[in-house]
Amino acid sequence: MKPYIIETHGLSYSFGKRPVLQNLELRVPQGAIFGFLGPNGAGKSTTIRILLGLLPVPKGEVLLHGQDLKEQRLDILSRTGALIEMPTLYRHLSGYDNLEMHRRMVRAPKSRIAEVLQIVGLSQDARRKTIEYSLGMSQRLGIALALLADPELLILDEPTNGLDPSGIREVRELILRLNREFGKTIFLSSHLLSEIEKCATELAIIDKGATLYQGSLQHLYEGAFQSNVLRLETSNNAVAHKLLLDHQYPLLPQEADVVSVQVQDKRQVALLNRLLVENGLDVYSLSTNTLNLEDLFLNITQGEATPDAVH
């Protein structure tokens, strides 16, 4: 099992008398793209500020890279890069000069500038003033700034916020490449659940400062499969309907040209298909109305999730 690059134990935080985080538990495996989700006011921004040392850790334990944030803050932050929504750029300077100023602060080698420009696809635009950059180019330059010190962990908060579809795709592909080719662990917070669905392998869903779900995206989908409805078309739907009824499959009200049946798992789908074929029916299509991440997120945060989906 891979070690955790981020761990929180009993993390609690309050603004005055208002609790924001309540015994928050996070486990981010090294090498993962980790989606961090929650409705507005769930405590995501506060958690990220704590992870980046911008807020103290008054109660609980926070470990990054296996070290206690309270005791090893500077060493931890030197191994962690971050982009919080929009990067802060000197707009009268070029992309290269912005990187040069930041390079001096983090004491990275000068050769690193060309490397990060190539990684984020801005080598050809390095000498342009950043006031001429599109929003997507600015976001990629922000990620380049975060990469200068060659961190093991990248914390990205809403990196596609405000981007058009082309810019969103560019940032998504960059995130995937950073993970797959350069081995970066990505801690990714976003309201765009479709993007988390395309990128993340692990995720946590929080609300009211507490963890509601944590685990793999695959496990979350498998936990939701029990409510799936299988829709099928055959060479004779009337015969298929009677056959399934005789074998005590839970059928839903019949629609024109479609037979709908509730299934528990993938194995049951295979058995059902075999039953139809062995009884001389041609199966033209099988499809399930699998819940997407948005459906599952709403189910969990609104208290409608199955026990298997929350732990």
Largest sheet: 6 strands, mixed
Under CATH, the topology of the domain at 4-79 and 151-221 can be stated as: Rossmann fold
CATH superfamily of the domain at 4-79 and 151-221: P-loop containing nucleotide triphosphate hydrolases
Mean pLDDT across residues: 89
Rough outline:
elongated
Low-confidence stretches: 306-311
Helix content: 25-40%
CATH architecture annotation name of the domain at 4-79 and 151-221: 3-Layer(aba) Sandwich
Strand order, main sheet: write it out. Answer: 6-7-8-3-9-10
Please characterize this protein's 3D structure:
The chain is α/β, with parallel strands linked by helices and 311 residues long. Among the domains are: 4-79 and 151-221, P-loop containing nucleotide triphosphate hydrolases (Rossmann fold, 3-Layer(aba) Sandwich); 229-288, Alpha-Beta Plaits, CATH 3.30.70. Helix content is 37%, strand content 26%. The protein contains eleven helices and 13 strands. It has helices at 44-51, 73-78, 95-106, 111-120, 135-147, 165-182, 193-199, 217-224, 237-246, 266-278, 293-301; strands spanning 4-15, 18-29, 33-37, 59-64, 67-68, 80-84, 153-157, 185-189, 202-207, 210-216, 229-234, 259-262, 283-288. The strands form three sheets. The protein has a six-stranded mixed beta sheet with strand order 6-7-8-3-9-10, with helices on both faces. The protein has a four-stranded antiparallel beta sheet with strand order 2-1-4-5, with helices on one face. A three-stranded antiparallel beta sheet has the order 12-11-13, with helices on one face. Strand 1 and strand 2 form a beta hairpin. It is elongated and about 75 Å long. The model is unreliable at 306-311 (pLDDT under 50).
